[in-house]
């Protein structure tokens, strides 16, 4: 059984809810990543959400807002999705496909230990699994 921990990109850099989106964009550029988990300032282990590069463009810049004046908390919406480090690949796919998400944080002992992205999936799935994932996440409904 392949687990989330075995296929994830290990390590996670965080934003706090009060960090601005300019900082988020700079971190994404410097780390060459497209998403960052957002933590509660009072408890850096508590996942509050995830901010993507697309969120910054669509929900901030395209709305005429300045990234330096918009906080991560303003973009975090709803309950953050995540998977347990011991979840098998089918559970990971179920979570990602069911919520039509392309990245999912991996949590172990209530702490984010990594992230699974489409690139991670592509390295570990069969062609049929990749095709099903793409259809479920990208197909218009």
UniProtKB/TrEMBL annotation:
For this protein's source organism, the top of the classification is: Bacteria, Bacillati, Actinomycetota, Actinomycetes, Kitasatosporales
**Can you say what this protein is called?**
CBS domain-containing protein
Write down the InterPro entries for this protein, in alphabetical order.
CBS_dom (IPR000644), CBS_dom_sf (IPR046342), Diverse_CBS-Domain (IPR051257)
Has the keyword Lyase been applied to this entry?
no
User: What keywords tag this UniProt record?
Assistant: CBS domain
- Which SMART domains does the record match to this protein? CBS (SM00116)
Q: Which residues form the CBS domain?
A: 8-69, 75-132
**Which Pfam family, an example, fits this chain?**
CBS
The UniProt entry, under PROSITE patterns, shows: CBS
Q: Which organism is it from?
A: Streptomyces triculaminicus
């Amino acid at each position: 059984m392949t687990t989330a921990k075995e296929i994830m990109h290990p390590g996670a850099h965080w934003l706090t809810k009060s960090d601005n989106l300019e900082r988020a964009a700079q971190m994404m550029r410097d780390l060459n990543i497209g998403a960052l988990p957002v933590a509660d300032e009072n408890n850096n282990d508590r996942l509050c959400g995830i901010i993507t590069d697309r969120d910054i463009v669509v929900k901030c810049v395209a709305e005429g807002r300045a990234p330096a004046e918009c906080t991560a908390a303003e973009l975090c919406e709803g309950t953050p999705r995540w998977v347990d480090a011991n979840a098998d690949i089918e559970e990971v796919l179920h979570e990602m496909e069911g919520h039509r998400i392309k990245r999912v944080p991996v949590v172990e002992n209530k702490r984010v230990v990594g992230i699974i992205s489409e690139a991670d999936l592509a390295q570990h799935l069969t062609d049929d699994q990749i095709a099903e994932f793409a259809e479920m996440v990208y197909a218009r409904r």
